[in-house]
Design brief:
- By secondary structure, this protein is of the alpha/beta class.
- The protein has two domains: 193 residues, Alpha-Beta Complex (inorganic pyrophosphatase (n-terminal core)), CATH 3.90.1640.10; 124 residues, Diaminopimelate Epimerase, Chain A, domain 1 (Roll), CATH 3.10.310.
- Helix content is 39%, strand content 17%.
- It has eleven helices and eleven strands.
- Strands 6-7-8-9-11-10 form a six-stranded mixed beta sheet.
- Helix 2 links the parallel strand 1 and strand 2.
- It is globular.
- The two termini are 39 Å apart.
- The relative contact order is 0.10.
């Protein structure tokens, strides 16, 4: 079935003179990699077309990838819009997306909102970039890929899979990554951008380790209020990335980062787990995502503690049935 969907997507792309690529709000490495990689892939293949990349949001830690395009509103009237790595229309970072003539959704999240005229969703994939790599290899006789495009796509595969450690990574994931490497991915420069740290970040990590809290049954969590973000001169994206520092605590199969967002008057939630799913929990708190990696939003500290309590109960029930795996 998905072979037919991919064929429809390529045929539709070839029908349009104007193609606009968008992604989700608060874009991560996969959203940036998929959108920029797909945009570059299409520009290399169809230099005569008008190919735009647009986004109403921005992630400073990925600024090295480059910026987006200014798209005239009148361009949408006869345009094809490709939305990558975005599960629901509410998370599309393009306020003009409804103006497009045709919308195609390319996504790897659990299906909740089939908003596209064509929907290609593979929730078993480790990243949207894995899907873009598969799309390229399926039609490599018709598509052209540059080193730059391959590097963007590889970036999304690496970051969304936790460097190929997370749920969804398969032999096919690594075969697709290998095909991108064969295209000349500049992984040394890429990893230097992604994983080099300022000395100040080490002080921040020390703070994190001192302030992690663990519930009765093993939910590890941390609240990053605005004052702490300012103390360490953290961008909102940098503060949100703190969830990765909560990984690896023995007995903590669920870990959660809460990041105060004063600009929007809410608290961003990033949830991660191993062995047990947390997507339903995320959905309960205005979010969603993957089975073991999801996001949510709460609107008060009281609601934050309700989420922590629900997560603790979820973990209690899991351990009662399965015991402490690790």
């Amino acid at each position: 079935m998905n072979e037919t969907v991919k064929q429809r997507i390529l045929d539709t792309i070839e029908e349009y003179e104007t193609v606009i690529v968008s992604r989700h709000i608060r874009p991560d490495g996969d959203a940036v990699g998929a959108s920029m990689g797909l945009t570059k892939l299409l520009r290399d293949t169809y230099p005569e077309k008008h190919i735009y990349l647009t986004d109403d949001d921005f992630s400073s830690y990925l600024a090295f990838c480059g910026g987006e395009d200014e798209v005239p509103e009148e361009a949408y009237q006869d345009a094809l819009l490709l939305v990558v790595d975005t599960g629901t229309r509410a998370r599309i970072s393009n306020r003009n997306y409804k103006r497009a003539k045709t919308v195609i959704k390319i996504d790897h999240h659990i299906e909740a909102d089939p908003y596209g005229d064509i929907n290609w969703v593979e929730d078993f994939r480790s990243s949207a970039c894995e899907m873009i790599a598969d799309f390229y290899l399926t039609f490599k006789d018709r598509l052209r890929i540059s080193r730059e495009a391959a590097t963007y796509i590889y970036m999304g595969m690496v970051t969304d899979s936790g460097r190929f450690r997370f749920e969804g990574v398969t032999g096919e994931t690594l075969r697709l990554a290998g095909a991108l490497l064969d295209c000349g991915v500049d992984y040394e420069t890429l990893f230097a951008h992604l994983y080099s740290e300022e000395p100040s970040s080490l002080k921040f990590k020390s703070y994190v380790y001192d302030h992690i809290r663990i519930t009765e049954h093993g939910v590890a969590y941390l609240y990053m209020d605005k004052a702490t973000q300012e103390k360490f001169s953290l961008s909102f994206e940098d503060a949100s990335a703190v969830v990765s520092e909560l990984d690896g605590i023995k007995g903590s199969l669920i870990w959660v980062a809460f990041i105060e967002n004063t600009a929007k008057g809410n608290i961003r939630v990033r949830l991660r787990s191993r062995f047990l799913g947390i997507n339903d929990l995320a959905i309960k708190y205005h979010g969603g995502g993957h089975n073991m990696a999801a996001g949510a939003t709460v609107f008060s500290e009281a609601e934050m503690y309700d989420l922590i309590s629900d997560a603790d109960e979820l973990l209690r029930a899991y351990k009662a049935e399965h015991g402490d795996k690790i």
